[in-house]
Specification:
This protein is of the alpha+beta class and 291 residues long. 66% of the residues lie in helices and 16% in strands.
Length: 291
């Protein structure tokens, strides 16, 4: 039964870790405040996240692409040009998103620019629309993170199911081998009475000849040879008995092992059914998040 307990413990631990990771990493927030742009402090909106910079940048590029032509003024910034009919401001012609990262956080700062590539003044920006834009980005990142975590959860469920199915095949193979061993032992035990009868008959024949009054068998050399043959036959009989007892003991153990393996197989198949349900739910979660 240990194989089932260990598999269940492994499955639930990994599942718990997956959802714990989802809670830990899903921590993006939208804020407003002053940031350095060029040589000036500019009040604008930004997002704080503890996600990896590479993932944030990939999400940022995908999010900004529909708004205009993208370029990279620097390694950690993305510029959007030729923005038309912006809800944030009629004066906005372009935008720069800067990514600032440390070991613990990743920050994305959005600068809204006019046609002279100068930051818009606060009175030129519609606060609700600007905040909504950055919030939409935050929601986009959050949604992508949830999908990634859900996909990881699905992979975990698939791996757990594959592992459970592998264990089932091992148990089924063990049962098959056990039956073959039982069959071999059974045949050996079936042959034992015949072997024993033959050995006893041959010994009896030797004993009869040994103690016969026929002078042919009474000379010293012949008698000695027959005594040796009789002793050898006795050893053969003893070995047949021991082999029979050994085979009986092995067969008894194989039968007990077979019963235990059947119980383990039933438990493993029960876990397999549970993991199939978990995999189905994990797949449906990914599908629902991608809608």
């Amino acid at each position: 039964m240990n194989i089932n307990f260990n598999l269940m413990k492994k499955y639930f631990l990994s599942l718990a870790l997956t959802f714990t990771s989802l809670v830990i990493f899903a921590q993006n927030r939208v804020y407003s405040g002053n940031h350095l742009f060029g040589k000036e402090a500019v009040s604008t909106y930004f997002v704080l996240s503890n996600q990896d910079e590479k993932d944030i940048k990939a999400d940022l590029e995908t999010f900004l692409k529909p708004f205009g032509k993208l370029s990279n003024p620097s390694k950690n910034s993305i510029k959007v040009e030729k923005i038309k009919n912006s809800m944030i401001s009629q004066q906005m012609e372009s935008m720069v998103a800067q990514i600032v990262s440390t070991k613990k956080i990743t920050k994305v700062v959005f600068f809204f620019l006019d046609q002279e590539m100068m930051p818009l003044k606060s009175f030129e920006i519609k606060p609700k629309e600007a905040e909504a834009f950055v919030t939409n980005f935050d929601d986009w990142v959050q949604k992508n993170l949830e999908i990634k975590m859900a996909e990881e959860n699905l992979k975990n469920a698939e791996d757990e199911l594959a592992s459970a199915q592998k264990d089932i095949k091992k148990l089924e193979k063990s049962l098959e081998n056990n039956l073959k061993e039982q069959e071999k032992l059974g045949k050996k035990l079936d042959q034992s009475p015949e072997l024993m009868a033959k050995a006893l008959s041959e010994k009896e024949e030797l004993v009869v000849k040994l103690y016969s009054e026929d002078s042919t068998y009474n000379d010293l050399k012949t008698k000695t040879d027959m005594e040796k043959a009789s002793a050898k036959k006795e050893k053969e009989i003893s070995k047949i008995k021991k082999d029979q007892e050994k085979a009986e003991s092995k067969l008894e153990k194989k039968e007990a092992d077979f019963a235990n393996l059947k119980i383990e197989l039933m438990g493993a198949k029960k876990i397999e059914r549970a993991l199939e349900i978990a995999k189905k739910d994990a797949f449906e979660l990914v599908s629902s998040l991608k809608k």
